Amino acid sequence: MTTLQIEVFTEILKTVVPRCAIITNSNNIVFEYRGLEIEIDKTQISELSERLSFLEHRDSTLLYSNNYYETLVSFEGRRIMPRIENDFDVEDSQNNIHYKISKASDEYILFLLQVLHTNGLLREFSRRSFFQTHMMQERFERSGSASIFDFLRIALRSLYTLKITSSDSKSYADFERYINSFLFHLAYNFDTSIVEIKLLEDFLNSQRLERIRRNTDEVDPPRRRYIPELVYHYQMAVSSESPYLQFISYYHVIEHFFEKIYNEELVKVVQDTVSSPSFSIKRENDIKKVIKVINNKLKARHEEYSINEREALELTLIKHIDTDSLKEKLKEYDDSLLEFYSNNEVIFSGGATINFDSSQEKEILKRLSSRIYSTRNSIVHSKENDKLKYTPFKHDRFLIKEIPLLRFIAEEIILSNSKLL
What we know:
This protein is an alpha+beta fold. Helix content is about 55%, strand content about 15%. The chain has 19 helices and 14 strands. The chain has helices at about 5-15, 40-55, 80-85, 105-120, 120-130, 135-145, 150-155, 170-190, 200-210, 230-240, 245-255, 260-275, 285-295, 310-320, 325-335, 335-345, 360-380, 395-400, 405-415; strands at about 20-25, 30-35, 35-40, 55-60, 60-65, 70-75, 90, 95-105, 160-165, 195, 225, 300, 305, 420. Strands 4, 5, 6, 7, 8, 9 and 10 form a seven-stranded antiparallel β-sheet that branches. Strands 1-2-3 form a three-stranded antiparallel β-sheet. A two-stranded antiparallel sheet has the order 11-14. It is elongated and about 100 Å long. Mean pLDDT is about 85; it is low at about 300-305.
């Protein structure tokens, strides 16, 4: 990364810490917030930025070198394990590796704030993460620290990182293997999940939804009743930190009506065929045509008949989804998504692009169903010899882009099938 200018650093502080005051002089920066006063040495910031410039970065949330790896992590259900809340260290003397989960280092905080600033996401991050309470101030004062980074470590919630230090030179791939082993080891022994966050999208998504939904104190009592099975799948998706589980759970909401809608379509096709003036029950060929229609719609599999799921998905979207409404929700959530869906296939599934500006609604829904179904198959049928298959964690950066699409569709289906209480 390029060396951070002092002016940019002060701008970052003003954005991430609401209502703070910054006074600069030739050697120092004086940071003031609610009676707290912290003196920041400009030389310290320049030296820290210089050290940061020698570290590699990847995925907007990862710092590493030949001997060091630091990445953002989240905890299952966003709960911090009690034994990890204060630092958690594991020493591997055999491989000369040291693991540590703790609040982010000075370098990492500076790196992350700089990345957020560059991507125009700093204000959104601050609204989500800044801990504005007197308890936070008291905790900082009790620490006896005079460091702006110690203040930020206390003030920024959930900013935990996994740090791996090696006495020997390691490649990025080496560190990836160590981190995967360590996180599985923790999950196996402590029955909890700690996940490496590789995308700022993942880190900030919940804030985006909070922004477009009503505040808790404004919510009225429920006026409608919903199908319980759909609610269960929806709750599973919302409570999960895994893009894989989110996608599958939202998809379960959508597929709930596949068989019903598909059979309705089959009945309609048969009715249209037999009610046609050209149809006669006395002509054998006409009867065979009806049988052929049914056979094409229902495929025999293991002595049972199965529907065409790809077609059932498209029929479900046609029945329940208004593309203009979906477009507006996506735009309000993240106005870059429409362009992304229009210009990018799903890289691990080949899911089709979608032009939401098309005047042909059926074409939009057809391509939408194609994108969703291809991605679903890539996730569910990840056989070793499949060329287009989803690999957990490796493809999460791509899958997470599909989650808003699935969520808004699932929500619309739940709402459209609800009734007044």
